[in-house]
């Protein structure tokens, strides 16, 4: 259940028992890691303490601006707060109970990779497979990455690609991995390029000019998740 925050709710007690969503748990956990009180985090993120309390207690849909301010105050990224993949060091997750493995269906895979983050761009060369980490965004169900002209990724931008995203989510006590297989292509059509530039927030790893956009259209999505029983 998603509850809409209103001024009236600010003046009264919460109408139902707390039911934190995924975002709520990540915000609360990150705040605890930094040793911040709700009042301190509210001041840093320029929001009312009451709204932050609500945000940590109920599933919420903050605006993009609010999410960016909150992520900055928590010294993380919006993608990380939304559960985006690849921004957690590859350390062993501590699960609250016995681990249970779950095979993910394509719809679950799409929801997990939707926030964007870091993935692994994989292709085959004459000397063997190559795996490179890249930032990515999900636009209209496709993977979008940016690179510079003349890079090895640019050179394989019109080839069959495998793209992997994995994530250790300590707040939810789970580890997941999604593998995308599909055809990559350079985004060249003016209308498509305009939409990708508008919708994709995908920054390349190195600095400098990176005006080449690649899009991967998924043919097959598979994934696994390990969580506590």
Write the layout of secondary structure elements.
Blueprint: H1 7-11, H2 22-34, H3 38-44, H4 49-57, H5 64-73, H6 78-81, E1 99-104, H7 106-113, E2 117-125, E3 128-139, E4 142-147, H8 152-155, E5 160-169, E6 174-186, H9 190-199, E7 212-228
Antiparallel strand pairs: 1-7, 2-3, 2-5, 3-4, 4-7, 5-6, 6-7
Helix pairs in contact: 3-4
Could you explain the architecture of this structure?
This protein is α+β, with helices and mostly antiparallel strands. The protein has nine helices and seven strands. The protein has two domains: 7-76, Orthogonal Bundle (434 Repressor (Amino-terminal Domain)); 99-228, Roll (Pnp Oxidase, Chain A), CATH 2.30.110.10. It is 31% helix and 32% strand. A six-stranded antiparallel beta barrel has the order 2-3-4-7-6-5. The protein starts with 6 loop residues before the first helix and ends with a strand.
Task: Summarize the entry for a quick read.
By secondary structure, the protein is α+β, with helices and mostly antiparallel strands.
């Amino acid at each position: 259940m998603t509850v809409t925050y209103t001024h009236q709710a600010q003046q009264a007690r919460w109408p139902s028992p707390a039911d934190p969503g995924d975002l709520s748990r990540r915000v609360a956990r990150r705040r605890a890691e930094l040793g911040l009180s709700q009042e301190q985090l509210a001041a840093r993120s320029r929001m009312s303490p009451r709204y932050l309390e609500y945000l940590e207690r109920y599933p919420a849909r903050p605006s993009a601006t609010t999410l960016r301010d909150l992520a900055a105050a928590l010294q993380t990224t919006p993608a990380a707060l939304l559960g985006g993949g690849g921004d957690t060091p590859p350390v062993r997750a501590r699960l609250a109970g016995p681990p249970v493995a779950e095979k993910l269906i394509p719809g679950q895979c799409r929801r997990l990779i939707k926030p964007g983050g870091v993935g692994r761009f994989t292709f085959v060369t004459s000397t063997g497979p190559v795996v490179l980490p890249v930032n990515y965004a999900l636009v209209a169900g496709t993977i979008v990455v940016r690179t510079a002209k003349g890079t090895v990724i640019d050179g394989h931008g019109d080839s069959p690609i495998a793209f992997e995203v994995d994530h250790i989510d300590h707040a939810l006590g789970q580890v997941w991995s999604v593998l995308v297989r599909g055809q990559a292509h350079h985004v060249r059509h003016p209308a498509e390029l305009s939409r990708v530039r508008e919708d994709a927030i995908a920054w390349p790893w190195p600095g400098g000019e990176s005006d080449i956009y690649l899009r991967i259209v998924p043919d097959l999505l598979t994934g696994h998740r390990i969580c506590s029983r």
